[in-house]
Nitrogen fixation protein FixH (Rhodocyclus tenuis), 199 residues
Amino acid sequence: MSSPTSSAGSASPATPGAPSAQPWYRERWPWFLMAGPAIVVVAGLTTAWLAVRSNDGLVDDDYYKQGLAVNQRVARDQRAQELSLAADVFLQPANGGVAPEVRAYMRGRPGFVFPDTLTLRVTHPTRSGIDQSVALRSLGNGLYGGRLTAPISGRWHVALENASQDWRLVGEWRLDTHNSVSLPPPPEEARQPITYHGK
């Protein structure tokens, strides 16, 4: 009796130990290779959406008025030079959590009339919410005094000006190294720390 033979159309049995074929989407490597480009596309679309929806604070629509303001500030700086104005601003740390006092000693050319009050603007380079404007009253002989609204530390931009804003003195105050600042700042080779021993 002859052994039965399989028909020509039947599939041959799988070889033992051979890996079974799977669809590509069930493999791990195709998804791993596609993840990088997909993340880049999503990040690009997110950046474009943020650029369209958010407001760019560095761009000012009213650039003409901004330019006029810059010219006005330059004119005030030049006026201070014409009057030979200079000032030394001192910080007196206060105890008990009280805001520190500020003293400013002004100098000018002969005949300059010192105003009764000055305004000291202390602005942070990056955080506008903690800027301060301090009213300084004359104590006589070019000395002015006032009090900050809160303690300050680190690096600040300072501007000293009169009430009519005819002139101004500007500089950079590094409180981490000095408790005083000269306005305008002296040449680099002539800078010396100033110690205030006033009242």
